[in-house]
Design a protein that fits this description.
By secondary structure, the chain is α/β, with parallel strands linked by helices. It has two domains: 206 residues, Dihydrodipicolinate Reductase, domain 2 (2-Layer Sandwich); 174 residues, NAD(P)-binding Rossmann-like Domain (Rossmann fold, 3-Layer(aba) Sandwich), CATH 3.40.50. It has 13 helices and 14 strands. The strands form two sheets. An eight-stranded mixed β-sheet has the order 8-9-10-7-11-12-13-14, sandwiched between helices. Strands 3-2-1-4-5-6 form a six-stranded parallel β-sheet, sandwiched between helices. Helix 7 links the parallel strand 4 and strand 5. Helix 11 crosses helix 13. The longest helix is centred in the middle third of the chain and has 18 residues. It starts with a helix and ends in a 12-residue tail after the last helix. The N terminus is likely disordered. Pfam families: GFO_IDH_MocA, ox_reductase_C. InterPro entries: Gfo/Idh/MocA-like_OxRdtase_N (IPR000683), Gfo/Idh/MocA_Oxidoreductase (IPR052515), NAD(P)-bd_dom_sf (IPR036291), OxRdtase_put_C (IPR013944).
Length: 429
């Protein structure tokens, strides 16, 4: 069946690349306004920051390079005023650890709360965060219809800027799309920035590939993504449970789904997606020991070891995505190739050691392109976010929530095509 799809799509590639439904990512970056809490001088005044979630994505984990708090505390003119987590002892420990660090003065007076409702009720004006970093399990947020999971909606109504970690939800894609539209409305009314952490858009390799596409001036025709994950340090059972994490595409390879959307300037065609996978019955030699990893997860809910998908974009291009959960160690093995008439762009290892190679039209040479690695992608993302909070200038905000909702939907379409049911709106056990 996959071969049939490829033969059909190759015969149709001569059609016009531009469609009426083609979604423009650039539209989200063009909205500029003065924020209600905008600071008159980026060099003189503080941005007060809070965290919802005291876990690894914001405070570090051996699973990967994530540690938002360490990167943010290195930024000038920030003060941390709140950490929200039901585990109050963990939240207090996070404050204590950072208070004794090099930037400990930025954590003085940081309060802890069991939920964000308590934070909103009890913080005084001088302690109320200007912006919130959300890093919580996906089933706890991203809803418009369920009040207990309507975190973004509630915080937006309270006037909070937000940077939200993916997955942005475990709710049905239609509901998340409606939430995106509602958040955009509130953001416009209250002059808020509500962004999502698809940080590869700030990666020097992705930035360079985007610039090369613009310079070459020819449309990309084929995308080939390979996202190979290390698994031996992923101990959290929820990560291995598709009912809680969404599975490997929604939780992880969604970054490549988003990168393909971003670079193609187009949307996935849902009815074109074909996918197959190697299921959880394949035993992994270096699985973390019980009770971590998948040992307590029901067999039918465990994640695939490998997934391959083929798909078409609305502008006529085609693509493939190969995700595996097979590598040992700590470094992922990731590659993204882009092909068009006369050219090839190869992105290598964007997470650890980014590199880009290009073969230009009318050339046989594959040449490495120098990259600007002055900042890592997370730092650049946070700099753009803080600048937008202070000034209202969203020119470097590359993924607002409504944009991310489309990546979320495409990630679920691939997951569903690989044999897993989409979210039905029920809560995981």
């Amino acid at each position: 069946m996959l071969g049939v799809i490829l033969r059909r799509t190759s015969a149709r590639l001569k059609r016009d690349f531009v469609t009426e439904r083609c979604f423009s990512v650039a539209a989200f970056a063009s909205r500029n306004f003065s924020t209600s809490n905008a600071l008159q001088s980026e060099n003189e005044e503080l941005v007060k920051l809070g965290f919802v979630g005291a876990g690894g994505v914001s405070f570090g984990t051996k699973e990967g390079p994530w540690n938002h708090s360490v990167r943010l505390e290195r930024m000038p003119n920030v003060q941390f005023t709140a950490i929200v987590d039901p585990d109050l002892e963990l939240a207090k420990q996070r404050v204590k650890e950072h208070s004794h660090g090099e930037n400990g003065h930025k954590w003085e007076g940081c309060q802890v709360f069991k939920d964000y409702h308590e934070m909103l009720e009890k913080t005084t004006k001088d302690k109320k965060p200007d912006a919130i970093i959300i890093g919580v399990p996906p089933w706890l947020h991203g809803s418009l219809d369920v009040p207990s999971s309507a975190m973004e909606y509630d915080l937006a109504k309270a006037g909070m800027h937000m940077l939200i970690e993916k997955p942005i939800s475990m709710r049905p894609t239609e509901e998340v799309g409606r939430l995106g539209k509602e958040l955009e409305r509130i953001a416009d009314e209250q002059s808020l920035i509500i962004a999502v952490g698809y940080m590869l858009r700030y990666n020097p390799a992705i930035e360079t590939a985007k610039a090369l596409l613009e310079e070459i001036g020819r449309k990309p025709v084929s995308f080939v993504g390979r996202y190979n994950c290390t698994y031996n340090n992923i101990a959290k059972p929820a990560w291995w449970d598709t009912l809680k994490s969404g599975g490997c595409i929604v939780e992880q390879a969604t970054h490549f789904v988003d990168a393909m959307r971003y670079l193609s300037k187009s949307e996935f065609k849902r009815d074109s997606i074909q996918a197959v996978g190697v299921g959880p019955d394949m035993e992994l030699s270096d699985m973390p020991p019980p009770p971590g990893a998948e040992h307590t997860v029901k067999a039918e809910n465990r994640v695939n070891r490998a997934t391959i998908a083929l798909f078409k974009f609305e502008n006529g291009a085609v693509g493939s995505l190969n995700h595996t959960l097979l590598m040992h160690g700590s470094n992922f093995y990731t590659e993204l190739d882009i092909f068009g008439d006369g050219f090839a762009i190869a992105i290598r290892d964007p997470y650890q050691n980014p590199a880009v190679f290009v073969r230009r039209p009318h050339s046989d040479d594959l040449v490495e392109v120098p990259l600007d690695k002055k900042y890592d992608m997370y730092e650049k993302q946070f700099e753009g976010f803080l600048h937008a909070v202070r000034t209202g200038d969203q020119s470097n905000m590359r993924c607002l929530f409504q944009d991310a909702a489309r990546t979320y939907a495409a990630s679920w379409w691939i997951t569903e095509a690989a044999g897993y049911p989409p979210p039905d709106g029920s809560k995981p056990e």
